[in-house]
Write a structure and sequence with these properties.
- The chain is of the alpha/beta class.
- Helix content is 29%, strand content 34%.
- The protein has two domains: 30 residues; 103 residues, Nucleic acid-binding proteins (OB fold (Dihydrolipoamide Acetyltransferase, E2P)).
- A five-stranded mixed barrel has the order 2-3-4-6-5.
- β5 and β6 form a beta hairpin.
- α2 packs across α3.
- The protein is elongated.
- The N and C termini lie far apart (70 Å).
- It comes from Tenacibaculum adriaticum.
- InterPro entries: Protein_unknown_function_OB.
Length: 143
Amino acid sequence: MSKKKILIFLVLSIIIVTSLFIYKEYNKPHINVAKATPKIVINSQQILKEYQENENKANTKYLDQIVQISGKVSKLEATNDNRIIITLKNDDKSAISTVICHLTSEENNKLKKLKEGQNIIVKGICTGYLMDIILIRCVLVKI
């Protein structure tokens, strides 16, 4: 075989392997948070304290994990696409950080019972700390 044919074969092989990898990653099924067992059960004050003390260590422990958090609702808000965001209260008055939970749309029917100041338990995937701790695809475990 000539060098040109070998080079073309290698380039095509790399393109095919890369395409298969991208396809597989893009079509990976999402975790069903409602059915999944949480890796960590904690309250909002504890997780906030851990992130404020050492963000890198907390990321190692919580990032991309299913976390179940208990806390007191400080704010409820709706997004433009009718999804609900719950902010859990931070008892430390000097801190500006909170836990923000992005609920799945399937949880909207449970929100009629929910009020500010109420203690709740939510389960979701921790995506890290950007002034606030963010949980996505959250479900209400207990109202």
